[in-house]
Specification:
Strand content: 15-25%
CATH topology of the largest domain: Rossmann fold
Oligomer: single chain
CATH superfamily of the largest domain: P-loop containing nucleotide triphosphate hydrolases
Structural class: alpha/beta
Order of helices and strands: EEEHEEEEHEHHHEHHEEHEHEEE
Number of strands: 15
Helix content: 25-40%
Number of helices: 9
Largest sheet: 6 strands, antiparallel
Strand order of the largest sheet: 2-1-4-5-6-7
Distance between the termini: 30 Å
């Protein structure tokens, strides 16, 4: 099921864009600030959540927060719209019928890599946890429902903790909900990490990593619902003093190491960290060979030498995924040759425009 058309209306710098697509990779190039990444962000809105920039819907409107925007895509036989009317939250329409955002996760799997993720191994655990959960969601769409259930129950428990409610009857139901959802989240994460490690090709350009689920509090990798509920009960007094839940699936971290010396990713060079991250992204797409996949790579070529760029393009061409990449100039994508399409993006008077051309 291929994405064959994308239409943007008043999204970011695009007053309008009608972009025909096919299964070939598309290299989008143009000066910084021309609107290349905005195309990838629009496509990332075909997944649940806030997309690759984690932006609120009003901030994505070209005409300002009091205006709206619309994204329409043709995916196989399906017409998918994600719309943010003025002053309203984003909603999704599939074949002219309203659906939930989580429905998108079952229709197409969207994977992205953006420059901010280059700091994944050195930044705080929250970023690695979000990355791990996006990978898990791509493989197991029910992960979104479990995450929503967990977050909802935890918010209610945290409210009780902040209000210094001590009656255990108020907590039991919420802790049971957290325990059931948290155990499911942990099982999914373990399964996803195993699938990604299996799908890595272990080449020298993009080496394979050993992935682990790290519990910050000593318990976050627990997949036993009864044990989680018991621990939440035992930790109430400590959590009440803090005013929030200090143990559980929301505290997990992602660990990665590679090579014969099992070098931790955080201690590797910048180039090695980038290669490891690309290895995981490619493995994620490879693990989804039986699903429609959109792979969005923002400014990825600029940080690679010519040989590694060529190796990346060979892998992209072999992937069971529809790939869009951005870069500042067509010369960055020359190693694709006729295997890829080229889109030149310019910007004038605050509006972006696109022209299809040839790669250098």
């Amino acid at each position: 099921m291929t994405l064959t058309a994308l239409r943007l209306s008043q999204f970011r710098s695009w007053p309008r864009l009608d972009l025909p697509l096919d299964a070939r990779p598309m290299a989008i190039h143009g000066p910084n600030g021309s609107g290349k990444t905005n195309i990838l962000e629009a496509l990332s809105m075909l997944a649940p959540g806030r997309g690759l920039r984690a932006a609120a819907a009003p901030d994505q409107a070209r005409m300002g927060p009091d205006a709206g925007w619309r994204i329409r895509a043709t995916l196989g036989d399906h017409a998918v719209e994600t719309v943010a009317p003025p002053g309203q939250p984003r909603h999704v329409i599939l074949d002219d019928k309203p659906v939930t955002q989580t429905t998108l996760a079952r229709l197409v799997r969207v994977i992205w890599l953006v420059p901010a993720m280059d700091r994944l191994w050195s930044d705080a655990p929250e970023g690695r946890r979000r990355f791990m959960d996006r990978v898990t969601l791509s493989l197991m769409p029910d992960h979104a429902d479990l995450a929503l259930a967990y977050e909802k129950a935890m918010r209610e428990r945290n409210r009780l903790l902040r209000d210094q409610i001590s009656d255990p009857g108020w907590y039991r139901a919420l802790e049971s909900q957290m325990a059931q959802a948290g155990a499911g989240l942990t099982r999914n994460r373990h399964a996803a990490l195993s699938a990604i490690m299996t799908a890595q090709d272990g080449g020298t350009d993009f080496p394979a990593a050993r992935l682990t689920l790290l519990p910050q509090d000593g318990f976050a990798d627990d997949a036993d619902a009864d044990a989680i509920a018991a621990r939440l009960s035992a930790m109430r007094h400590r959590d009440m003093a803090a005013g929030r839940t200090l143990t559980g699936a929301h505290r997990a971290d992602l660990g990665a190491s590679w090579g014969p010396q099992d070098m931790p990713a955080a201690q590797s060079s910048t180039g090695e960290q980038k290669a490891l991250l690309l290895s995981l992204i490619l493995a994620n797409a490879r693990a989804l060979s039986d699903q429609p996949v959109l792979l969005l790579l923002d400014e990825v070529a600029a940080h690679l030498d010519a040989d590694r760029r060529a190796a990346l393009y060979d892998r992209i061409t072999d992937l069971p995924a529809q790939t869009l990449l951005t870069g500042t100039g067509p010369e960055l994508f020359g190693a694709f040759g006729p295997r890829a399409r080229s889109l030149s993006v310019t910007k004038a008077d605050g509006a972006s425009a696109a022209t299809e051309g040839a790669l250098s």
